């Protein structure tokens, strides 16, 4: 188990120090056989990051080592289903799986991952590293309120999550459907981390705001840019990844989920898989991802858009519910947002 449950109770300043100050890990990183990786010639990766974003890592990796990256991108749920099915029938052609905590932990429970600690991850705050070394965290996704700057003046933008409940935003908000979208349900259920918020009361009040609901975070951005909604709840990184009249609310705290890399225990190109994970976690790989507006774990590396360097010290990591907890949570969200209408 990780120490994330301790982090969510920690002061924001402590989290800031853990993110930005390099801490030495007591875990021993495994050596990488680069020549063996080159002889394998390719690495097969299943990941949730869009290919156009991951090109900043995949292309330099291929050029540097002469190893082809066969990259299959899908949603975290689709990756879980494919990897799990392939693992259970004994094919398992993949080397590396990337995704958020919930699906990755399910695969870990199934015994999919090999023990591996990339050397560069020793630079990450040790509180983020997995004690069993079966998964490596490498980026995090803070959630914020994005708004259309032609519809909402900066001084009118929400200063807190609570302000989404103001009467002036009724019918002007877009959110992912919490009854279908795991992370949104998780986000709402974790709002008790905010002073003065009882999440069930907040969710019921948000439902009364008549939000326009979509399937996930990604469509929120275009919905806001096109002016179909004045503001929306989605990943903060999209401000730096999309062009248009958008900005984000500077909140006192940001809830975030974490993405992990795992090496298959039956990887057909195990050496190339280790090298690929190490490259992503290296300063070179982490800087490249930060330039695409991704938030990464390497100390003092952050996206370049305004205010991004201030986000880590305000970030609280969400706890992933178990499968049974999420089923109950999803049923409750359906009752609040759909049946309650």
Q: Name the helicity range.
A: 25-40%
Low-confidence stretches: 1-27
Distance between the termini: 40 Å
Assembly state: single chain
Alpha-beta content class = alpha/beta
How many structural domains in the coordinates? 2
CATH topology term of the largest domain? D-Maltodextrin-Binding Protein, domain 2
Mean pLDDT: 89
Radius of gyration: 20 Å
Shape: globular
Biggest sheet: strands, sense, closure?
11 strands, mixed
**How many β-strand runs?**
11
Percent in strands? 15-25%
The arrangement of helices and strands along the chain is HHHEHEHEHEEHHEHEHEEHHEEH
Instruction: Give the count of helical stretches.
Output: 13
Protein architecture, described:
The protein has two domains: 22-140 and 258-308, 3-Layer(aba) Sandwich (D-Maltodextrin-Binding Protein, domain 2), CATH 3.40.190; 142-255 and 319-339, Periplasmic binding protein-like II (D-Maltodextrin-Binding Protein, domain 2), CATH 3.40.190. Helix 4 (51-65) links the parallel strand 1 (42-47) and strand 2 (68-73). Residues 1-27 have low confidence and may be disordered. It contains 13 helices and eleven strands. Strands 1, 2, 3, 4, 5, 6, 7, 8, 9, 10 and 11 form an eleven-stranded mixed sheet that branches. With 341 residues, the chain is of the alpha/beta class.
Briefly summarize what is shown:
The chain is α/β, with parallel strands linked by helices. It contains 13 helices and 11 strands.
């Amino acid at each position: 188990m990780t120490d994330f449950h301790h982090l969510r109770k920690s002061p924001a300043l402590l989290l800031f120090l853990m993110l930005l100050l390099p801490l030495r890990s007591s875990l021993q990183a495994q050596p990488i056989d680069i020549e063996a990786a080159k002889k394998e010639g390719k690495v097969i990766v299943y990941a949730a990051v869009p290919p156009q974003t991951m090109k900043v890592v995949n292309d330099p990796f291929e050029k540097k080592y002469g190893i082809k990256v066969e990259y299959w991108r899908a949603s975290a749920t689709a990756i879980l289903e494919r990897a799990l099915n392939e693992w259970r029938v004994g094919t398992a052609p993949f080397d590396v799986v990337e995704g958020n905590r919930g699906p990755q932990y399910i695969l870990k429970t199934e015994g999919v991952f090999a023990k591996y600690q990339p050397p560069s991850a020793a630079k990450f705050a040790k509180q983020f590293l997995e004690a069993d070394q079966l998964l490596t965290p490498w980026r995090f996704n803070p959630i914020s309120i994005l708004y259309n700057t032609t519809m909402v003046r900066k001084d009118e933008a929400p200063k807190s999550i609570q302000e989404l409940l103001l009467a002036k935003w009724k019918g002007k908000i877009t959110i992912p459907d919490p009854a279908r979208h795991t992370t949104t349900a998780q986000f709402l259920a974790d709002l008790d981390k905010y002073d003065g918020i009882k999440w069930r009361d907040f969710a019921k009040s948000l439902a009364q705001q008549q939000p326009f609901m979509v399937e996930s975070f990604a469509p929120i951005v275009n919905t806001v840019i096109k002016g179909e909604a004045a503001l929306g709840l989605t990943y903060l990184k999209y401000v730096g990844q999309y062009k248009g009249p958008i900005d984000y609310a500077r909140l006192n705290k940001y809830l975030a989920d974490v993405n992990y890399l795992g090496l298959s225990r039956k990887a057909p190109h195990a050496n190339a898989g280790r090298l690929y994970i190490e490259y992503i976690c290296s300063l070179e790989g982490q800087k490249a991802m930060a330039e695409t507006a991704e938030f990464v774990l390497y100390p003092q590396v952050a996206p370049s858009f305004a205010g991004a360097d201030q986000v880590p010290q305000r970030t609280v990591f969400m706890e992933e519910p178990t499968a049974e907890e999420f089923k109950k949570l999803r049923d409750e969200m359906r009752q609040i947002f759909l049946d309650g209408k």
